[in-house]
Amino acid sequence: MKVSIKHKLLWRAFVDFLLFNPKKQSLALLLMIIQGVTGSVGILLILPLLGTLGISTGTTVETFSNSAQKVFEIFSIPINLFTILVSYIVIVTLLASLRYTLTVLSSQLQQSYISQLRTHLHRQLLNCQWQFILNNKMSDFIHTLSTQVQGVGHGAHLMLSLTSQIILTLV
Questions:
Q1: What is the mean pLDDT of residues 84-112?
Q2: Residue 60 CB: number of other CB atoms within 10 A?
Q3: Nearest to 114 by CA among 17, 10, 7, 2
Q4: Angle at which helices 41-51 and 81-127 pack, to 10 degrees?
Q5: What pLDDT does residue 97 have?
């Protein structure tokens, strides 16, 4: 099977993106996986927490209700409506903070990678031979530096998201 030049370039861009900042990449991947695991916890968590008060929610989530009740007992927290709602708000706030941190980290990573790509392309253009510039249209250079570099950065971010989704699926 013959691999096209586009696929090779896409793979190279993805590998370059992964090697760009490995610490931030691995942190972003970890946060994506955590977000994927805890994605639906928000609304689904209130019913078992209310179950710890003895309020019938019509669901069979007694295992989680019992676990939550034990956690409240371990920390000597009284089980009442106020503490249940406060704990729900704390958990939802932590999950929202996780999403916010992931969004900011991903944006910083993507923008710094795009900036590096543009800087690299500028250097390549400055160091190329004059004949190469004359043989190509200036609009092609502008299009590459503005639109195509942005697309490569966005595609690399999507590949990182795909990787986290594949890991979640396998787990």
A1: 88
A2: 8
A3: 17
A4: 160
A5: 92
